[in-house]
């Protein structure tokens, strides 16, 4: 039962990832593209966790933590750049 629910979750996450990719490439503004990139990072993290849950493999937790940190700092740097400052001081 859990594997079936996880497969449905993976399907929904795949659709969300495609929607985020569409917004990254065809976003009307740079801020929309930044938000879509953040969503894309979150979707990839959720896909890795869900796939690891179905296989029983716990070795990908480090990857998810690293993606979370990189996604956060990337979003903060891009938001700071969009406000007119330098990305890194």
Number of domains: 1
Number of helices: 3
Please identify the structural class as seen in this structure: mainly alpha
Helicity level = over 70%
Overview of this protein structure:
Helices cover 82% and strands 0% of the residues. With 89 residues, it is mainly α. The protein has one domain. Helix 2 runs antiparallel to helix 3.
Indicate the topology:
Blueprint: H1 2-26, H2 30-55, H3 61-82
Helix pairs in contact: 1-2, 2-3
Feature tags:
89 residues, 82% helix
At a glance:
The chain has 89 residues and is mainly α.
């Amino acid at each position: 039962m859990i594997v079936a629910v996880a497969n449905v979750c993976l399907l929904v996450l795949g659709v969300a990832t495609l929607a985020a990719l569409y917004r990254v490439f065809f976003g009307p503004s740079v801020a929309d593209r930044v938000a879509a990139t953040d969503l894309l990072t979150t979707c990839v993290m959720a896909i890795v966790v869900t796939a690891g849950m179905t296989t029983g493999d716990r070795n990908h937790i480090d990857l998810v933590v690293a993606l979370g940190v990189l996604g956060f700092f990337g979003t903060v740097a891009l938001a700071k750049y969009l406000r007119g400052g330098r990305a890194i001081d």
